[in-house]
Amino acid sequence: MRESNLVCPKCGRADAVRKVTSIVNDGTTRTESNRLGMSISGDEIAFNSGLGNSVSHTELASTLAAPRKPSQPSHKGLSAIFPGFRLNCAGSFLGLIMLSMVCSFPVLYPTYRENPLLIFVPVIIFVASAIVLMRWVWLSKRREAQMLREGEAHYPLEIEQWKRALARWEQLYYCYRDDGVFLPHHAVLVPIAQMKQYLYAKSGEKRKHQPLKFKKDSRKNR
Fold first, then answer.
1. CA 157/CA 30 separation, integer angstroms
2. pTM above the 0.90 mark?
3. CA–CA dist 20, 171 (Å, integer)
4. DSSP H or E stretch at residue 55
5. DSSP β-bridge partners for residue 29
6. CA 149 to CA 145: how far, in whole Å?
7. Is residue 104 part of a domain?
8. Mind listing the pLDDT tens digit for each residue in 135-156?
9. Is 88 inside any structural domain?
């Protein structure tokens, strides 16, 4: 089917209708460039070159771009990227407390002599801080692991929704006159700002029982 045979469901014309995939492809420019660099090491000068790629999109192509594939839950959390990071932070904080206790001991020694029980105050502060910090480390790792499990469990559903949305996107047509998209043989023109919502409208069990509400376009048919 040629694009010109499709009629916009709003204006009833075909002269300004074009397939979305064609608009995105024509509005995407890929550029390759050669890069030359120089490095100096002692008395030696080295030249190196490389090939760089850049991609640019027109504003319309960017707006009509295909829905992005959901990123897979990463196992590279804070604990994986920086092993022992939380423990190091907790240890550093406890070290500062210990250093403060040692440095303040000569100053507070007369007070401790008058009231020996006060010497337990810094010890209590240190122990309480250690308990709080260890609990923070444990809860943080537990929360991170739980978020990863939930992400992995929900990822297959996100992929299924994305595949459905991508299949609908590949069938979309755009009307330049009314600035909206529509599916062939559908009597609804969707404003371009609501395209992503429209693509995912029937994806997922939760959306099946929730009809999508579109904003009314106040522009008159030309």
1. 32
2. no
3. 8
4. strand 44-57
5. 56
6. 6
7. yes
8. 988 888 888 888 878 778 888 8
9. yes
